[in-house]
Amino acid sequence: MTRGAHREKGWIGRFLDWWGGALRGALPPSLSRALGFEDDVLLLRQEPGRVAFWRLSGGRNERIGEVSVVAGEAGAPPLAAAVRQAPSIVLRLSPDLGLRKTVRLPAAAAENLDEVLAFEMERQTPFRADKVHFYYENLSAGEDGLSLDLSVVPRAPVQEWLDRLTTWGLRPDIVDLADDKPFRNPAPSRNLVPPERRSERASPVRTLNAVLLVAMLLAALLAVWSPRLWLERRSDALQAEIADLRPEVEDRLRARRLAAGDRTGLLNAVADKASAPVASQILERLSAILPDDTWIQQFNIVDGRVELQGSTSSAATLVPILEGAPEIASVAFRTAVSRDAVSGRENFEFIAELARAAGGKATKP
Fold this sequence. Notes:
- The structure is a single chain.
- By secondary structure, this protein is of the alpha+beta class.
- The strands form three sheets. A five-stranded mixed sheet has the order 3-2-1-4-8, with no helix packed on it. Strands 9, 10, 11, 12 and 13 form a five-stranded antiparallel sheet that branches. Strands 5-7-6 form a three-stranded antiparallel sheet.
- The protein folds into three domains: 169 residues, Nucleotidyltransferase, domain 5, CATH 3.30.420.380; 61 residues; 83 residues, 2-Layer Sandwich (Gyrase A, domain 2).
- The protein is built from nine helices and 13 strands.
């Protein structure tokens, strides 16, 4: 079976599609056609008893002739020879040769959509999966799952038409099923041609144009990002210069403050030091008020706070005891209490705010 290669693009792919379309749209139509951005497409439309030849170019549809299927090879070569060099050949089969329907599937099917559709083929259509070629489009996802338009054609008519066109000297790049848009632009995802029969033709002009388009995109991106990169590098350089100058500036400011007799900061530091209780005073108080089964493993005084770490039989009972000390204003757990699995003792970490009062003595009303 043949499967349409549908995969949702990432944001980079969507951005590049939009950017490329905008660049192409800015070109005059004549220049766009000259550069090959608007390829001529030879469209072969299957009609009752005949094949109509159309040229699609630059949004225009031009009928250039037809070949009777009854006439066979005799009627085809003159016309086929005139269009054999078309950059792209598309065979559009009559809708009565296949089936088109909207299919809904669970959202989980998105991970292996081709395999799920093949498995569901007999339930969704009257055909077996190994007897058809199919593709899908208009894939969308919603709260109720996936929705897509499935096009299915039995293998036999596809093979028959590919063989017929081969005798005419034509190898279509794409075979799709006609719908309500008879002259829609061909898309690689709408293709019933088996992989082993797909043409490997490549247009040098289109290849060159693709390279030029990529170069234009890279140049545009570079033009957008270059100023930002320069600003980032300049900012880093300025930050480094400021870091180098900071010690010298701080030394000069410090010398200026001392020369002007501004001793406020020094006096405040001395006052704070004097008003803070000494560690020995706090330790003496803790030794007096804490229960005998309480062990202090770590003791620090930092920025007017006492940090305590240790173990006891009941950490919660220590909070009111500590808050009852005149040197301590408030007590809070620094971390959650944990219990030692062997001894059953509780490990605690407290932060106690020191109480301060005028005159340099720690007190609390």
